[in-house]
Specification:
Length: 242
């Protein structure tokens, strides 16, 4: 019967759709192709999974109506397999819509810390380092209110030492550190995609201790899904806890 043939076809289709996301990540990390290609694969994987999942659900209900339990089970298996990419990618899409389309945050939106040594490490196709305060500041403050300067009672030397230790404990690669200038530059490599995100930390003296500011930016991509803000918030939490 045609409904059984469709079920077999859906089973065969479900496998590449299920593997689309991990293949996109692995191929990008192995430099088989560019990020744009991986994103296209993920996009089509999401659309294809959603379409097949919906059709499988309708045909499963039809099979039950026709009292064809075995066929309905076949469609059920397809739905179980495709539930992984459908739910996962739907959650990512929902998260992207709920967050601002930015890839750059700074605790000081008026006078953000400046990158120095890291500039030479960034490729030609990297996102620009300029922080557009007029555009980014209101978006950042509305979405990530915890991204604020750290006001510490530590003196600048103590704050500098703690900042270095905190960055290293978070697994960041320290690229440069200048105690006299109060500047620390680091690179954080994301776990899944191995994206390189750049961070600069600035320590300044205050009348009561020191002020610590951070700036984090993704090298590629238009949106970071909150990764840079989370990185800064984690640093703030860990620094303050020590």
């Amino acid at each position: 019967m045609i409904i059984q043939t469709i079920a077999k076809f859906f089973k065969l289709t479900a496998i590449p759709l299920l593997l689309g996301f991990p293949i996109a990540i692995i191929a990008y990390r192995l430099q088989v192709w560019q990020m744009a290609t991986s994103f296209q694969i993920i996009k089509f994987t999401g659309y294809g999974s959603a379409i097949i999942f919906t059709l499988a659900l309708l045909l499963a209900l039809f099979s039950l109506f026709k009292k064809q339990a075995n066929v309905a089970k076949s469609y059920g298996l397809v739905m179980i397999l495709l539930a992984i990419p459908v739910i996962g990618l739907s959650m990512q899409a929902s998260k992207a819509k709920s967050l601002p389309f930015i890839h750059h945050v700074s605790t000081d939106t008026v006078n953000p810390p400046k990158f120095q040594a890291i500039v030479a490490l960034r490729g030609e196709n990297s996102n620009p380092l300029a922080y557009d305060s007029e555009k980014l500041a209101p978006l950042q403050k509305a979405a990530y209110p915890k991204v604020k300067s750290i006001m510490s009672e530590l003196n600048t030397q103590q704050a500098f030492s703690r900042a270095v230790d905190t960055a290293m404990n978070l697994g960041w690669e320290i690229v440069a550190k200048n105690a006299e200038q109060g500047i620390i530059e680091a690179v954080d490599t994301t776990l899944l995609w191995a994206f390189k995100d750049d961070v600069v930390i600035r320590i300044q003296a205050t009348t009561s201790g020191s002020k610590i500011d951070l700036r984090s930016i993704s090298r590629i991509g238009g949106t970071d899904l909150g990764a840079n803000a989370k990185r800064v918030e984690t640093f703030i939490s860990n620094f303050s806890a020590n």
